[in-house]
TrEMBL record:
<protein>
    <submittedName>
        <fullName>Glycoside hydrolase family 127 protein</fullName>
    </submittedName>
</protein>
<dbReference type="Pfam" id="PF07944">
    <property type="entry name" value="Beta-AFase-like_GH127_cat"/>
</dbReference>
<dbReference type="Pfam" id="PF20736">
    <property type="entry name" value="Glyco_hydro127M"/>
</dbReference>
<dbReference type="GO" id="GO:0005975">
    <property type="term" value="P:carbohydrate metabolic process"/>
</dbReference>
<dbReference type="GO" id="GO:0016787">
    <property type="term" value="F:hydrolase activity"/>
</dbReference>
<dbReference type="InterPro" id="IPR008928">
    <property type="entry name" value="6-hairpin_glycosidase_sf"/>
</dbReference>
<dbReference type="InterPro" id="IPR049046">
    <property type="entry name" value="Beta-AFase-like_GH127_middle"/>
</dbReference>
<dbReference type="InterPro" id="IPR049174">
    <property type="entry name" value="Beta-AFase-like"/>
</dbReference>
<feature type="domain" description="Non-reducing end beta-L-arabinofuranosidase-like GH127 middle">
    <location>
        <begin position="443"/>
        <end position="538"/>
    </location>
</feature>
<dbReference type="InterPro" id="IPR049049">
    <property type="entry name" value="Beta-AFase-like_GH127_C"/>
</dbReference>
<dbReference type="Pfam" id="PF20737">
    <property type="entry name" value="Glyco_hydro127C"/>
</dbReference>
<dbReference type="InterPro" id="IPR012341">
    <property type="entry name" value="6hp_glycosidase-like_sf"/>
</dbReference>
<feature type="domain" description="Non-reducing end beta-L-arabinofuranosidase-like GH127 catalytic">
    <location>
        <begin position="17"/>
        <end position="433"/>
    </location>
</feature>
<dbReference type="InterPro" id="IPR012878">
    <property type="entry name" value="Beta-AFase-like_GH127_cat"/>
</dbReference>
<feature type="domain" description="Non-reducing end beta-L-arabinofuranosidase-like GH127 C-terminal">
    <location>
        <begin position="540"/>
        <end position="653"/>
    </location>
</feature>
<keyword id="KW-0378">Hydrolase</keyword>
């Protein structure tokens, strides 16, 4: 492929240069390090009593010839272990942990022994289906698993300098490059589940080998072209599926985002996780190859997803069938899917958009997903997880009362047979520091207000930024600027969509900053000890949906700062659908130190239907039931379902 100049983009600060130290996020960072990652290692080794077994570690031991047995789990089981190793790499990058590193090194040794002589690595096809490699790309996730192992190899190498896993994935990627491509004799196909695309770009950035970028570019551009590879492949199997049923004679190529070439696509469609992983790979390839047409498609797909198909919590994928998008403005709250992995993929894509186009709208979405669905996907104990993230839940329906709600759980689960979400949460939170800032030659962009310390090079000058943040409970943020020498550069601070106004002071004096794409840009001569303070107004906001969102007509949701709020049965009693919030009701907030480890709650005088006056008739021609006053208490959405089983609702009728 012809080489083209890359597009200019800002750089991510290495994890070794960012230290998170924040009153809100310290809890989650420590939880991931001391509870989540150790717990998930036990789960991957099938040592958590009462949890669904994983088989992931044992599969590698069997493939390596260290144990005897049968393959266990889903065809993509390898990816759970790969994501755990990636999270481990991020933890080691931020703080040495010899014991954790030794565990990971031992596992990497096993992985290396399981690799074939030609570089191939996949326990399902090694143990259960030898000789059938690359025969069912639509269903069997081979390249998806490869992508996650590549990401793990890159992360572990950057953290430790150890090349063993990196060399394993380089050999695997080289073998994949021999198998796939446009050249005669190569397989001109792509995986049913995107992931390899973004992973190959990471490998290119780490090794400098353009073969990996070219291969990623091939996978991106082959998808959806005619003749359609997935259709041809399935026809060659007489429409037989890995999943135990025979496909109809028509393949739903849109589910795989393979219905059109990617640069022609206009709507977020199909399986939500696959879509955002694909979008992340598209952004990377566009940036590295200078493909402005491909980036235009990225913008178009991003806008459709976030402006017409995203929940207020940053969840995406409204349909349980296929874990997929449905159509514009179709955002049901109770049958929603909104897989945790999908919101994590949304964060990945947002970060990549920010690097190419520093605009607050991307960081606003990143923040929305992070503070609501991603954090809400894990319990406060770090050992229970949501796969599905509803905006309305009733245990009577979820627990078998209505099979249409069977995918929705009113409490978080210990583990899953399909356990993609828990290690995905772990790897994102373990790498949290890499999402706070980006930098170019003369500007540092502060995208998230999370306390800690960061070191960045600007025009040959080393600058240390010390951030203090009271988010998400207060809008006060303070930066101390420590350049190694007096220098001129820019600091760009995001003005969040949830803040109607913001004041900025520099060294205690009001500063009138210019605004560019939602960032207040401060350009001046900086010297050691300079301080910048931001006061971000943080009112309680009544949020409303576009009129075409049927599920939210006549309803409101509350948001304060980055946090979306919800009603929970524990505070408001059962039958939450009977509650309403009068338009004129005053909304007040307070810090509830004794609730859920200390959260800000919102209170209002609401109304409840007087169901006790109705009687026993199912329907009645008499007057509608009256209402009685009831105080309402709203908690942050991320904190729901930490006090046992009960109803929950984000959107409430506005009376």
């Amino acid at each position: 492929m012809a080489e083209a100049a890359s597009m200019e983009r800002s750089r991510i600060l290495p994890l070794t240069k960012v230290n998170v130290n924040d009153p809100f996020w310290n809890y989650y960072c420590n939880l991931v390090r001391h509870t989540v990652v150790p717990y998930q290692w036990e789960a991957l080794n099938d040592r958590v009593e009462g949890a669904e077994p994983s088989g992931a570690v044992r599969n590698f031991k069997i493939a390596a010839g260290l144990e005897q047995g049968e393959f266990y789990g889903f065809v993509f089981q390898d990816s759970d272990l790969a994501k755990w190793l990636e999270a481990t790499g991020y933890l080691l990058a931020t703080s040495p942990d010899p014991e954790l590193e030794a565990v990971a090194d031992e596992m990497i040794d096993i992985i290396a022994r399981a690799q074939h002589a030609n570089g191939y690595l996949n326990t399902y096809f090694t143990i259960k289906k030898p000789g059938e490699q690359w025969t069912n790309l639509m269903d069997c996730h081979e390249l998806y698993c490869a992508g996650h192992m590549i990401e793990a190899g890159v992360a572990y190498y950057k953290a430790t300098g150890k090349r063993k896993l990196l060399d394993v994935v380089i050999r695997f990627a080289d073998y994949i490059n021999e198998v796939f491509g446009n050249e005669p004799g190569k397989l001109q196909g792509y995986d049913g589940h995107q992931e390899i695309e973004l992973a190959l770009v990471k490998l290119y950035e780490t090794t400098g080998s353009r073969n990996y970028l070219n291969l990623s570019q091939f996978f991106i551009h082959a998808r959806g072209t005619e003749p359609n590879f997935l259709v041809q492949e399935t026809q060659s199997r007489n429409y037989e599926s890995h999943w135990g049923f025979v496909h109809p004679k028509k393949i739903d190529t849109a589910y795989f985002q393979a219905h059109q070439p990617v640069r022609e696509q206009e709507h977020a469609i199909g399986h939500a996780v696959r879509f955002v992983y694909m979008l992340s790979g598209m952004i990377d390839v566009a940036a590295e190859t200078g493909d402005t047409g491909l980036f235009a498609a990225c913008r178009r797909l991003w806008d459709n997803m976030t402006e017409r198909q995203m929940y207020i919590t940053g969840g995406i994928g409204s349909m349980a069938h296929g874990e997929a998008f449905s159509f514009d403005y179709d955002l049901p709250n109770d049958t929603v899917y909104a897989e945790t992995c999908a919101s994590i993929g949304l964060v990945f894509a947002a970060q990549r958009m920010l690097r190419l186009e520093p605009h607050a709208k991307y960081a606003d979405v990143l923040e929305r997903a992070l503070y609501n669905t991603v954090v809400g996907g894990m319990a406060r104990d770090g050992k229970h997880f949501f796969y599905v993230n509803p905006l309305e839940a009733d245990p009577k329906a979820c627990n078998g009362g209505n099979k249409n709600y069977g995918h929705v759980k009113p409490v978080r689960q210990e583990w899953f047979g399909c356990a993609c979400c828990p290690p995905n949460v772990a790897r994102l939170l373990a790498s949290l520091g890499s999402y706070l800032y980006t930098a170019d030659n003369d500007t540092v962009y502060a995208h998230l207000y999370i306390g800690g310390e960061a070191e960045v090079e600007l025009g040959g000058t080393t600058v240390v930024l010390k951030q203090q943040s009271e988010l998400p409970w207060s809008g006060y943020v303070r930066f101390e600027v420590q350049p190694e020498q007096t220098a001129v550069f820019k600091l760009a601070f995001r003005l969040p969509v949830w803040s109607p106004s913001a004041s900025i002071t520099v060294n205690g004096q009001t500063y009138k900053a210019g605004t560019v794409n939602g960032y207040a840009v401060l350009e001046r001569t900086w010297q050691a000890g300079d301080t910048v303070e931001l006061a971000l107004e943080m009112p309680v906001m009544r949020m409303h949906s576009h009129p075409l969102v049927r599920s939210n007509a006549g309803k409101t949701a509350l948001q304060r700062g980055p946090l979306v709020y919800c009603l929970e049965q524990a505070d408001n009693g059962e039958h939450l659908h009977e509650l309403s919030l009068p338009k004129e009701a005053e909304l007040s907030w307070r810090k509830a130190e004794d609730l859920l480890d200390g959260v800000v709650v919102i209170e209002a005088e609401g109304e409840r239907l007087k169901a006790e006056d109705w009687g026993t008739a199912l329907y009645s021609a008499s007057a509608a039931p009256g209402t009685r006053l009831q105080p309402l208490l709203f908690i942050p959405y991320f904190a729901w379902a930490n006090r046992g089983e009960g109803e929950m609702a984000v959107w409430v009728r506005e009376s």
